[in-house]
Write a structure and sequence with these properties.
84 residues, 3-stranded antiparallel β-sheet, 10% strand
Length: 84
Amino acid sequence: MLELRPNCECCDRDLPPDSRLALICSFECTFCRDCAEARLGGRCPNCGGELLARPVRPAEKLARFPAATERRHRPERCAGGAAA
């Protein structure tokens, strides 16, 4: 099950579970659309994987399967673009 992490790892922007601005890689690293496109070229700076739209969990499922609350903010990894 996806964690639905609460923020962009680059800019720390809030990305609530219903956000259409959240993009993730296959390891669930999470970025806002602005950082993913402008700073990262659509690639995860941690693994080099493709960043795709994060699915939205239906509201009725969030009570039973809540989104993650731990924030991950690692702007130093976003400065140079995607990892090789």
